Amino acid sequence: MSEPMIRATGLVKRYKDVEALAGLDLAVPEGKVLALLGPNGAGKTTAVRCLTTLLEPDGGSASVAGIDVLAEPAAAKARIGLSGQYAAVDEHLTAHENLVMIGRLYHLGRQRARTRAQELLERFDLTEFASRPTKTYSGGQRRRLDLACALVAAPPVIVLDEPTTGLDPRSRQLMWDVIRELVGEGATLLLTTQYLEEADVLADDIVVIDHGREIAHGTADELKAQTGGQRIEVVLASAVDTEAAFGVLNEVAVGEVKVSGGGRELEAAVGDEAASDLLRVLQGFERDAVKVLDVGLRRPTLDDVFLTLTGHESAETDR
Q1: Lesser CB count within 10 Å: N end or C end of the chain?
Q2: Both 210 and 141 in a single domain?
Q3: d(Cα 79, Cα 212) in Å, to the nearest integer?
Q4: 266 assigned to some structural domain
């Protein structure tokens, strides 16, 4: 097998008494997408900074496109396109000026830099705003420009640190479409995210981390299977039906039925036959005259995964 395009072996990073990375291993084959999934504070951004030469790890090794990140940081950096959590663009320049400037920094030449800027403006649906200062852009427009900037030199390795956090649904879908196109063209991606749905849509493989350690590794379906697959969620019209609804849900539940909201909100994890289980629940409610305001299926959230894997929910601060 060929060497992975992105590899981390035993990465360790400490901030005083905090161990942000505790021996993390990652491997991303060429042309694939690895999603690094975890809550705020899990160490995702620290891992990204170590892999992209922005931080020097305290232990372990890392390589990008076969280049040792610690031994040859400049050569490694030239092969990486990075889009961080916050758009790193000059807000006083227009989108076109930002892209041309980056092209010149990569020594593309004046004409090639302008041509490449126009290509990326069209690709990211930014042509309409190309002559406006970036400080007037919406959050979604700034994120799209930031990703465009990361692609100016057409790097073989792209690292996206929570690229869709805070975006509206349309902007998020546009970003997903662009990421799919990049992979289709042969790029290798490392994607950090807090959203299981995003990892499910985009990633070939997922590594879940907590406190800087890998706690699970697999496809989205494999991870969801560890949390009991989908959930049936019910909102009752009245708490007087709690006991009856609990009994119906308990017939199909994988594990414990959760009750909250003063007895009016119930949740049950179900197995592979989720649609059939939902039908059984609806039939049971009709049989027992259980009155509901809302009932439906949903997929596990990140907190569901973490609660199952670690026994706690996501943290509140990132590193």
Answers
A1: N
A2: yes
A3: 25
A4: yes
